[in-house]
Amino acid sequence: MTGDKKILVGVADDHTLLRNALARLISSFENYQVVFEAGNGKEVKEKIAKNVLPDIVLLDVNMPDIDGYETAKWIYKNYPQIKILALSMFTDESIIIRMLRLGAKGYILKNADPDELKLALDSVWQKDFYLSEYISGKVISGLHKDIDLPDEPIVLNDKEKEFLQWACSEMTYKDIAQKMYVSPRTVDDYRNALFDKLKVKSRIGLVLYAIRRGLVEV
């Protein structure tokens, strides 16, 4: 990363020691400057409302008062230019999907090492996307880290498109089957067909494809 431009970062986490440590670490990275720390979404809103506008917010998912979900939704709606890097100790698909749907550009685990945090911030800033190395290896085999997509759009039939829309929600596959008035086995067939077509091996991979292709709204 070159140039004199400082990338401004807000750090939001309800654990004071961790938040302070993250802020100090990020401030030590070349070209990065922490402009605020916050213990919950309410404090994030207050900081931003005072025109302390970061380029990136490192946002803990689980916080008191106003959590990471509501904060991400508010940031995306009111300040879409601010990039959100979600921070969590959980690898649950439902949490990752929800944060991506709410506008997060990346997701990193709290046990990541400093080099990965730097990589995550760089990737969110430069490439508009990052997923934790652990999550990428665990659930997104078949997609590059940069989430490169095929040049040619992939043709999906109507049922596959409908399934993809529901897959980007928080519903279980059983719930999706009921919504589509088909059997769970049929839903499995739709899922497997899309895994094959899109070269992904997880539901998160489907969601990423849909978001990057503009097939669902965040």
TrEMBL record:
Domain HTH luxR-type: 149-214
SMART domains: HTH_LUXR, REC
Gene Ontology BP term (one): phosphorelay signal transduction system
Modified residues (4-aspartylphosphate): 60
Keywords: DNA-binding, Phosphoprotein
Phosphoprotein among keywords: yes
Residues annotated as domain Response regulatory: 8-125
MF terms (GO), sorted A to Z: DNA binding
SUPFAM superfamilies named in the record: C-terminal effector domain of the bipartite response regulators, CheY-like
Protein name as it appears in the record: LuxR family two component transcriptional regulator
Organism: Pseudobacter ginsenosidimutans
Lineage: Bacteria, Pseudomonadati, Bacteroidota, Chitinophagia, Chitinophagales
